[in-house]
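Practice set, problem 2.
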Amino acid sequence: MSGSPGPWVLHVDLDQFIAAVEVLRRPELAGRPVIVGGRGDPTERAVVSTASYEARQFGVGSGMPLRIAARKVPDAVILPVDTEAYAAASAEVMATLRAHPGATVQVLGWDEAFVGLDSDDPERDARDLQAAVLARTGLHCSVGIGDTLVRAKVATGFGKPAGVFRLTADNWAAVMGDRPVIELWGVGSKVSRRLAAHGIRTVGELAAADETVLAGEFGPRMGPWYGQLGRGEGARVVDDTPWVARGHSRETTFQRDLEDPADVQSALRELAARVLDDVAAEGRPVIGLTLKVRYAPFVTKTYQRRIPASSDRDDVTARMLQLAGDRIEPGRAIRLLGLRAEMPMPDGAREGHTPTRSGW
């Protein structure tokens, strides 16, 4: 499937990345159901970070409570999260992608990146990238090929595991038209339900939808963008401008619910200290706070507040405690607390990191 020379977008997605890194370190686990999450103890409150394909066959998926995953697969090997190991493996993969002649690499996360290439045979380049990553790291990856970032990203799903798939304007409607909208990157269950209320259930129906209807439901910016997404359209150029964090967040799941206000305040101060350490490394002030509270048994609420730009730790901490005092419901047991601090973006930073912010 070669073609005329021109810009192509390749989306490289590492297969079962975290589980694969663990299997490389423990070859005896190959072929066994492996679950990674928390501290590797299913009796504790924690969620699955990833699961090997063998574990996924039993219905285990990311975000599932670890104890439920262990119940689904009693003979699974459950391992603790090792962030440093995954970051190191990811860095090796990204360096390999950047070494490919003519490649422009836009990192999306530990396990995926866009690669921009001028090529008359993008399938050949995809296979070369797969071989290079495997030789250097021992990890397998799937590659989606597209003429837009959206199409390349969606194409990868058809190539898994360890395959290559091309999705362009020529075959988008044939491949995607009859599929449910939730299969699009950037459309979750809530958006899917809102679209269904207007009789829009398939990608083809979304592609043909009246933009005034979409704008009425989602707003003048996001509405038309969802229509664009249904057509697979959007940016065609891979942007390797370094990614800059808009904010930093931390959260803690407590093994026992917090009920004493003093314990809640202590936990909040600890969270604030960790978040502000991350923010300090950025050299930018805090301009907004988001508090996440999960009440027992499992009701999650978020509370947001803009604040005057501040780099003073004591000031930011005091404003966070004030937000918590104003919004946390008294007398309710707390299962989880999370805190996010938002910062202003520096000049020249890349906007629109994700499709759900209409950056493409």
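Problem 2, part (b): a different protein.
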Amino acid sequence: MDTPPSPSGTERTDGSSVRIGALVPLTRPGWVEAGRHLLAGLELAVRDVNDVGGIDGRPLELVVRDTAADPQRAAAAVDELARLGVAALAGEYHSVVARAAAARADALGLPFLCSSAVLDALTEQPTEWVARLAPAQSHGWRIYADFLLGAGHSRIAVAAEPSVYWASGTGTLRDCLAPRGGTVIELDTRALAPTAVCDEVVDNGATALLLLVGHPEPAVSIVKSVRRDPRLAEILIGAPAGQPEFAEWKTLLGDDGAAIPFLRYLPERLSELGARAERALRERLAEAPSFVAFEGYDTIAVLADVLRSHGVDRARTAESWPRVAVEGTRGKIRFSRTPDISVWQWAWTPVQVVDRDPADPDRFRILHAG
């Protein structure tokens, strides 16, 4: 079921507004909490744009569609939004879903600024129609591999589910670790219960276990099993995809969810714009905003700048990606062509490896930056 119109504006059909289609996971099996933060960032930025006159006097409006982590549903939403006359697409969190949306947007000639999905191969062939704010998975996960090696971990077990995204991440880790004497041991969570995962980690002599699995399950059950296993008292649990970023993680795991390093895409200090957005997002969400909320805000900031400068013609928007120079919440945003990346890419968003502090799980510790 489609979501109701966002508070940023009703779905007008008289052409008075400039409309942007927003793809967001808002129901299960999508990562609903990530979707909520992404939408909050998108909506806040739309409000800020409209507060200073919109797009040449026309209000900016979001037309929101719930992807529910379903690639086919996302592709159908792109078709619908194109028919509704949106000037561009924004959003999406799940990489496999964003890939389906990007393919459809490319086929239709509809500009798509992807907010959060990191899969390197967002489209099969190079495209002029798609740009991305989030760093490519290979970039972020290489930084995570550097963190593991620097912390003394070279024998790494990965508890993984079948997915293009997880397989890509495992490949990046292996490519980074192997030349430096590291080993990656793959454990199939389809065949192994959480307690059996613990047995395999022990038997293989791994010093770190990475969760390349869905949230909340089986990630939460695996963490609980590891924390209860006295054989694994010294094991590092990691979650490079960012599961511990959101409040639900702490709610479900309490102290067991601390000291689990993950990737997030924030600088050490937010820009002045970022600090203002942080305060407004905190009020809107009634909790600390995640990096995903800032990705949403920056998406609209970029699109608004492009639409003001180049008009609402779709082809002109796509042609403008290499000329973008926008102050976002996390730094100056520019797009370029990056080797092995098929879309226009911000290279690079600030990347941190952080965890929740065991002494105060509401506080995040920066362990490594790249």
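Answer key, part (b): Confidence is low (pLDDT under 50) at residues 1-14. The CA atoms of residues 89 and 112 lie 4 Å apart.
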